[in-house]
From TrEMBL:
Residue ranges of every copy of the ABC transporter domain listed in the record: 2-241
Species of provenance: Corallococcus macrosporus
Protein name according to UniProt: ATP-binding cassette domain-containing protein
Organismal lineage: Bacteria, Pseudomonadati, Myxococcota, Myxococcia, Myxococcales
Keyword terms: Amino-acid transport, ATP-binding, Cell membrane, Membrane, Nucleotide-binding, Translocase, Transport
InterPro entries: AAA+_ATPase, ABC_transporter-like_ATP-bd, ABC_transporter-like_CS, ACT-like_dom_sf, MetN_ABC, MetN_ABC_transporter-like, NIL_domain, P-loop_NTPase
Amino acid sequence: MIELRGVGKVFGHGGRRVTALHDVSLHVPQGEVFGVLGRSGAGKSTLLRCANLLERPTTGEVRMAGQDLLSLSPGELRQARQGIGMIFQHFNLFASRTVEGNVAYPLEVMGLSREAIRARVAELLSRVGLSDKARAYPAQLSGGQKQRVGIARALAPRPRVLLSDEATSALDPETTRSVLALLKDLQQQLGLALLLITHQLEVVKALCGSVAVLEGGRLVEQGRVQELLATPESRLRALCFPPLSPQEAAVGQRVELSLTDAHARSPLISTLARRFDVDVLLLEGAVERVGGARVGRLLVELHGAPGAIADARTFLRDQGLTAGEAAHG
Ligand SMILES: Nc1ncnc2c1ncn2[C@@H]1O[C@H](COP(=O)(O)OP(=O)(O)OP(=O)(O)O)[C@@H](O)[C@H]1O
């Protein structure tokens, strides 16, 4: 479990102060993947560095398993840090060490026996699918393979919490998908609390149960991914389905539909056609599957008698489908 309570971070002195984080609070229970989504400069790296105390927050508390990390002595903090694994965007591998040497490193620091290290490294490389690369050096690996080594190394000390700093930002889309699938499997098998920061919406959709949106150092929205995507006015939904182009609307005919899973499961178009005697033209939009549920945004045009169109629009509004209607009315 990792918890941030009212964390703030100010860099610099006097007139050259930058407030990178304002009053950030979040909670990641064991077994949960929590994403922090933000643009460049939003404060993501600072947040992650504050979470493992590479950077000391100016205000607030950082708790792991109920323990306030800021109150620990340097020795106690070193001990506590063994419970926190880190995965980096640029992998941060030792170029002069082999794959197995990289994964072994944190175990050597912990003072484990050679035998114990050998067994643990072999187990980890098998978990991440790199047993055949044990003797290779990082320069001989692809980006995806390097990140798998990074993940194996982060897991070596059996952490309860994993922090991921843009783990897939340097990878191509297909490799990103395979690394995300690996992270998801490992997180589920090991029951880790995973806090990841990313600017990639894809990562949130593929992996996260909960998400917070970071803007200008503040968490401006947070909640369950499914619930936020089902909320028409949420920021996450707006990021996922950017507003559709209004085009030259025939007045009153064009309607933007915000679909939740329940809507996507109902025979919406045929219901409109049968019940209201209108034809429905699909103009633009998308329906996506996120964590087993469907969500979407569609721009449609209704054709038929004015009264029928009005009735169909009332029906759509009553079903909670037309949050974006005003923009195209
Ligand atoms: N050591 C520092 N000293 C002064 N200002 C800093 C320091 N580190 C970060 N900042 C400032 O804090 C703000 C947030 O930076 P941060 O690196 O956390 O953002 P980010 O969301 O991770 O961005 P990116 O995705 O581009 O890495 C920025 O305005 C940055 O200039």
